[in-house]
Amino acid sequence: MAGFFIPNFKKHSLKTKILMVCLGNICRSPLAHGILENMLDSNKFEVQSAGTGAWHVGNKPDPRSIEVARKNNIDISRQKAKQFSAYDFEIYDFIFVMDKSNFRDVIKLAKTPQEIEKVSLLLDSTHPGQEKEVPDPYYGGEHGFTHVYDLLYKACEKIVSSGSFS
Fold it and tell me: Is CATH 3.40.50.12580 what the domain over 14-160 is classified as, yes or no?
């Protein structure tokens, strides 16, 4: 039986690749993905998102995430949840996680110090050294999603304005 080949897309692209990661990839990371993608030049950057868990693989974002993004003129309705894998370290230049649990789960899959260096808490951009987390709005109401959107927007805005991807 022939082996399964996965091409290394990073070697064939001049774009900077950024991955947003949360638990299920249906609430926080799809919003962060949409927000940052909306702020960056798509000719120079590729933004994606993933979850550390596999519960929602293949599903669209939570309807509340889709709605809060829509209210801010961002369409995330075509995104599909995927699970983070060790291979993502080869593809992505920057990996932003939403909370400390996501951070631990992601770096457990790292094989080198260089891979670990790619990972950071997203809110470190707005609260350096404070280890602030983006709260998971899944079990809350619509207000939680609006609050998360605001946190994510400010963090993405700060990352873009700081020139972190230069």
Answer: no
